[in-house]
Amino acid sequence: MLPVSPSTPIVTLGEGSTPLLRSERLSAGLGLELWLKLEGTNPTGSFKDRGMAVAVAKAVEGGARAIVCASTGNTAASAAAYAARAGIAAVVVHAAGGPASSKLAQVRVTGARLIEVGGTFDDAFAAAEEIAEREGAVVVNSTNPDRIEGQKTAAIEIVEELGGPPDMLALPYGGGGNTTAYAKGFLEAGFEPRLVPVEAADRAGTTASAIRIPTPVHRAEVEEALARCGGAVVSVTDDEIAAAWSSLAREEGVFCEPASAAAVAGLAAVGDIAGSRVVCVLTGHGLKDPEALDRLLEAGS
């Protein structure tokens, strides 16, 4: 199910096979069967590792000596780690004040080249594409189809772990690549669960830095997936994200980064789901954004 052949090198840090955890207390409170896909247990702490393993392997197979990405943080950490694993260079472009310091630390420790630009993620992405063209590097953002191929494996795991598809899947919505990937995985497995991509109401200024992306590059693909599988995009405020983030930690013992909690926050805005089997994708570990701790504890208390 992946675009690999005998000539494709194996570039892995042990990604995938992440836990699917039954959320007992939140299930009771919401009146449904809620499961949490803990993608923060991937090697660099986020779901990005699934796609990066495939994208970097294919880049190496194609003769690339460097990869480049624009990032709000998690893509940067993953690209830097997998490039180091493969023995190639990595260039990371980010907007000033965008990524959390812990994510930048993950990049710096690998020796990857960091480039800061003014503006937003959109500006960083444009700069990354310019660098790729000028330096002959492979872009490993989710516009790279190999990234989507790797990330779709999470949907296949969910089907295997549940013994079938969920009725609904909710997940954070930043650029839209992950929604596109889950839809692809489910559809290739023969299923069409309802999809609920959850975005921040203030995309450009949200405290959930991992989804602080003003313009979703995969908007068209997300709309196509929703038309195929059903569901709708839901917007949540930062206060709602904070409350969900706090509930996950205090009621289930799960520490995720703020953007991950958007998936749970969005459930309150979805009608007609009582009794449904729902999977929420928690995309990153809480230690990915420790600066948010005091702010979110205050907001979610």
Characterize the structure shown:
- The chain has twelve helices and ten strands.
- It is of the alpha/beta class.
- It has a six-stranded mixed sheet, sandwiched between helices. Strands 5-4-3-6 form a four-stranded parallel sheet, sandwiched between helices.
- Helix 3 links the parallel strand 3 and strand 4.
- The N and C termini lie far apart (44 Å).
Secondary structural class: alpha/beta
Distance between the ends: 44 Å
Query: How would you classify the quaternary structure?
Result: single chain
Major sheet summary line = 6 strands, mixed
Would you report the number of β strands?
Answer: 10
Please indicate the count of domains: 2
Q: Helix count? A: 12
- Beta percentage is 15-25%
- As laid out across the biggest beta sheet, the strand order is 1-2-10-7-8-9
Q: Please state the average pLDDT score.
A: 94
CATH topology of the largest domain: Rossmann fold
- The level 1 CATH classification of the largest domain is Alpha Beta
Low-confidence stretches: none
Order of helices and strands: EHEHEHEHEHEHHEHEHEHHEH
Over all CA atoms, what is the radius of gyration?
18 Å
Shape: globular
**What is the architecture of the largest domain at the second tier of CATH?**
3-Layer(aba) Sandwich
